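Hello Y.,

Per our agreement to keep a running log of every chain we model this quarter, I'm adding this entry. I've kept the format consistent with earlier entries: sequence first, then predicted structure.
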Amino acid sequence: MIAMLAGMLGLGTVINALPGGSALFHPPVLSALVMATNMTIGMSLWMRFRRHSWRSIAEMSAAMYFPFIILFVPFWTGLLSGHLVMIGGHILMLPAMVAAMLLRRDECTGSH
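Predicted structure for the entry above:
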């Protein structure tokens, strides 16, 4: 979680500092994808440092995007606001990540 937060805040700050970078955080779908990418980069770097396999890193990364992608459908149909997509995506990300960890329980519970 700390690595994800570091990626989100660190890379978000860099993107906002770029000319026109803050525009990436305004359309809800693009904002969700940029934020998920920032968190995924931080998490992936930490997982690789901890010697997780590329497969488990890919599965965990997919778990971080999947909730947002699922919520885009009700957003596009007008059933959810962009704000609820962001909140719901972050909330649903946690059980999705737990599911990814359970797939690779030996990697998540063993010493690295």
